[in-house]
Amino acid sequence: METKTKKFKRDILNWYNNNKRDYSWRETNDPWKILLLETISQQTQLDRADTYFKLFIEEFPSPATMASSSLKKVLILWSGLGYNNRARRLYESSKILSEKGFDELYPNFEVLPGVGPYTNNAILSFAYGEKVITRDVNVDRVFSRYFGLNNVENFVHNNKQPLLNRVSSRDLNQAIMDFGSMVCKSKNPLCSTCVLEKNCEKNIVKIKKSKETFSGSNRELRGALLKLLLNENIASLETIQKNLKTDKVKLLKAVSTLEKDGLITIKKNNLVEINS
Ligand code: SF4
Fold first, then answer.
1. Are 48 and 174 within one domain?
2. Are 173 and 13 in contact (CB under 8 A)?
3. Residues lining ligand 1, CB < 6 A?
4. Residue 193 C-alpha to ligand 1 middle, in angstroms?
5. CATH number of domain containing 181
């Protein structure tokens, strides 16, 4: 008798064959491209991430090209994506990778700044063909709903073999990710037309989300401040405050967190400079 896991793999891979989104990086096994894409696509929709990915790969086709550039140049290219720490970590990773290379770090890429278990597994699966599941929120949601799970981590750990035997981990991982963002969506999953519906436990849990307001937040101010410094290079606190029309307490908080993140330096005479 066909197991639930087998049915899941069969149905989701069939769906993927007919519906996969066509991106330039889909078939790559270049770990640098995968690291770039995974870093850019965090908290960013894939179509938008794809546009930035193309810009980045053209400018920085290898870790060495980014490492020999400057943080400022990386931040300029990153403009509009937000969460500038990711750009800094990517830049720091490029420095390490230009010395050591992915093969030397294999299989532990978590030594690279900003690389956690998800990106580590994405590199292992997409670049090295390792039999691993790349778990992110989309993937966890699909597993949890379909198999009726409270603990996806345990499930994946205990079912690694049946999930991954006789399939390409790249295809299965990408299939689940696409399916999670296109069909088994966080809000309003498309159950009535879903090809997995027949065998799905429909364990749909409503998540109460407290939404962080961007407008007026420290994150918004940090972004505006960084944008100003990318143009001016260096500016006094007074000039920044005037330009950004903000109060001093908020500005000092933004400045100190950006300095802590290694993106700017506070100099003498209240001058603030972008790091390069
Ligand atoms: S039937 Fe609904 S809950 Fe189940 S996999 Fe499809 S979209 Fe998700």
1. no
2. no
3. 145-146, 183-184, 189-191, 194, 196-197, 200, 202, 204
4. 9
5. 1.10.1670.10
Report the distance separating Cα 127 and Cα 15, nearest Å: 23
Q: Indicate if 175 and 243 belong to the same structural domain.
A: no
Domain that holds residue 250: 218-274
Q: Is residue 241 part of a domain?
A: yes
Cα 83 → chain centroid: 11
Closest residue to atom 3 of ligand 1, CA basis: 202
Say if CB 170 and CB 12 are below 8 A apart.
Answer: no
Q: What angle do CA 187, 189, 191 make, to 5 degrees?
A: 160
pLDDT in tens, the chain (276 residues): 679 999 999 999 999 999 998 888 888 999 999 999 999 998 888 889 999 999 999 999 999 999 999 999 999 999 999 899 999 999 999 999 999 999 999 999 999 999 999 999 999 999 999 999 999 999 999 999 999 999 999 999 999 999 999 999 999 999 999 999 999 999 999 999 999 999 999 999 876 666 668 888 898 999 999 999 999 999 999 999 999 999 999 999 999 999 999 999 999 999 999 998
In-domain check, residue 15: yes
Catalytic, 38? Answer: yes
Same-domain status, 43 and 111: yes
Q: Is residue 206 part of a domain?
A: no
